[in-house]
Amino acid sequence: MKQIYEGKTKKVFLNEKGNLVLYFKDEVTGTGEDIDPGGNEVVGEIPEKGLSSLAVTKYFFDMLKEKGIPTHFIDASPEEGYMEVQQCEALGLEVICRVKAYGSFLRRYPEFTQNKELEHLNYLVEVTVKDDERGDPLINDEALIKLGILNNEELDSMKEITKSVAKIIETELNDKGLDLIDFKLEFGRVKDGKIIIIDEISGDSMRVFKDDKTVTQKELVEYLLK
Amino acid sequence: MKQIYEGKTKKVFLNEKGNLVLYFKDEVTGTGEDIDPGGNEVVGEIPEKGLSSLAVTKYFFDMLKEKGIPTHFIDASPEEGYMEVQQCEALGLEVICRVKAYGSFLRRYPEFTQNKELEHLNYLVEVTVKDDERGDPLINDEALIKLGILNNEELDSMKEITKSVAKIIETELNDKGLDLIDFKLEFGRVKDGKIIIIDEISGDSMRVFKDDKTVTQKELVEYLLK
């Protein structure tokens, strides 16, 4: 297999079937010295964190498959640390779903979010351009369309999928006594008008609370898989 | 008359009829040392700049009135440097209409705007929260609604008014051999569901080119009023 890319948290290979094979690294992202799934820098390494991310991702991708939500997932071996996925054209966006008001959303609009910390936002979707250097700038619907990043059908589908996933993850976490605050998804285009979830769904891409305290990636694995 | 507010470019008084009276100052806004209507700092003072802004604002508000577009404008005396306007609740937003791709829009999404400088964007509307400290952060439609800043009817109306104004100003400037690049509007709420344009429409709130070179406020007055 040929390595074709190395990102902050994954190595990507191409296999003989023409599918991608993702190896999950132990690097964790954050801001400054703090671990924060929303952060853009690598701030350290946690042993077996890659395996945890992969196990949780497999857990959720299996669940979404069952519910008919399209993802790039084909197969995964958490023991061997890899996931096989369908190739597609990444849109270059991060789609954030804010289930409850927290973090950068409160900091960005302090005047309009007073006393709204942890208020349910009914699955508010924000789209950002994946661009570490510029801190993943927000982009609105009109700009997405006018710049030809998505057509209307794809944009509607992307938002609808995101909200459906939000409800599925929220219900699942609630069942385990956990609280979903926000998460991000990435999307790719399979063909014009048809988009699917790519990348991962793990503690690395979501903020989960238990009794108002952050649940770590490792704790999340315990709650979901043990 | 009682002064009730002093902003970067205006002083605001309340008159005996319960209307606001705006005095236009000679301060110009910019970024760093450059004059830039999109900038948030006061970078200097230009003699009679206040009068120029007011004259252009009156020119456009009169034109919008004729076309049935609602603004706070009641009357103005460019000679005495003031404008009388209707009181209303400011939404605290800046609505930017990008007629052609330029400036911060290109810088914000470099990957998706290559070779698109000055491409017509068909009156793309972006809404930001008026917040100098945070550089007027962009806000998307869902967040505007979920945070209760606007209802759906007001949001649609705000965008529709903005696009109408864009076409009116663009046509007017084209007639004078000028090119409208982008501009900003502010809005206020008169009553639930009914919003109107407030503040000003002048060289201070729009970027105008002639033969690919920036037209100054003073030049704009010459082109429009002489």
Automatic annotation (TrEMBL), chains A, B:
Q: Which pathway, metabolic or otherwise, does it act in?
A: Purine metabolism; IMP biosynthesis via de novo pathway; 5-amino-1-(5-phospho-D-ribosyl)imidazole-4-carboxamide from 5-amino-1-(5-phospho-D-ribosyl)imidazole-4-carboxylate: step 1/2
> GO molecular function of the protein, one example?
ATP binding
Q: What is its EC number?
A: 6.3.2.6
Q: Reaction catalysed by this chain?
A: 5-amino-1-(5-phospho-D-ribosyl)imidazole-4-carboxylate + L-aspartate + ATP = (2S)-2-[5-amino-1-(5-phospho-beta-D-ribosyl)imidazole-4-carboxamido]succinate + ADP + phosphate + 2 H(+)
Q: Show the InterPro entries listed in the entry.
A: SAICAR_synt/ADE2_N, SAICAR_synthetase, SAICAR_synthetase_CS
Gene Ontology biological process terms in this record = 'de novo' IMP biosynthetic process
Protein's UniProt keywords contain Metal-binding:
no
Q: Which UniProt keywords apply?
A: ATP-binding, Ligase, Nucleotide-binding, Purine biosynthesis
This protein's record includes keyword Repressor: no
Which family does the UniProt entry place this protein in? Belongs to the SAICAR synthetase family.
Q: What is this protein called?
A: Phosphoribosylaminoimidazole-succinocarboxamide synthase
Q: Which organism is it from?
A: Natranaerobius thermophilus (strain ATCC BAA-1301 / DSM 18059 / JW/NM-WN-LF)
**Gene name linked to the record:** purC
